[in-house]
């Protein structure tokens, strides 16, 4: 059985999907982009600022499910320009202990929703 996870502290979905689904002990978090959850507006700042907002959106969803970044076992990072990888990674690393960090892939893509620079999804377990 699946449970829909939704919080006002993360952006509302912009399509036919949910912020996250809890299935058993596994939480599947939809890709988050740098949307301000309060205004619904896209942040157009530095790549570090955009990545920080994405991570904070993920954090809000984890908290709604009563989890933390320690529970994350897998992330997927989609970026529009691999030249931004080091800066994205610098911000991302602040949210995880390097010894227990999740599995991950980072993929450069042609376009992302709303033409953002970074999108991150995650899978966490209780």
UniProtKB/TrEMBL annotation:
The keyword Ligase does not apply. Residues 48-75 form a coiled coil. Pfam families: Ribonuc_L-PSP (PF01042). Transmembrane segments: none annotated. Keywords: Coiled coil. Signal peptide: none annotated. It comes from the Bacteria. Belongs to the RutC family. This is RidA family protein. It comes from Gillisia lutea. The lineage of its organism: Bacteria, Pseudomonadati, Bacteroidota, Flavobacteriia, Flavobacteriales.
């Amino acid at each position: 059985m699946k449970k829909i996870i939704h919080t006002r502290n993360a952006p509302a979905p912009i399509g036919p999907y949910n912020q996250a689904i809890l299935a058993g002990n596994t939480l599947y978090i939809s890709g988050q982009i740098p949307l301000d959850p309060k205004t619904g507006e896209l942040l157009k700042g530095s790549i570090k600022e955009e990545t920080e907002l994405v991570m904070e959106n993920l954090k809000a969803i984890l908290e709604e499910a009563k989890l933390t970044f320690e529970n994350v076992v897998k992330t997927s990072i989609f970026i529009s320009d691999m030249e931004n990888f080091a800066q994205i990674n610098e911000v991302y690393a602040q949210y995880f202990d390097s010894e227990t960090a999740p599995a991950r892939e980072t993929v450069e893509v042609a376009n992302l929703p709303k033409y953002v620079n970074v999108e991150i999804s995650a899978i966490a377990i209780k």
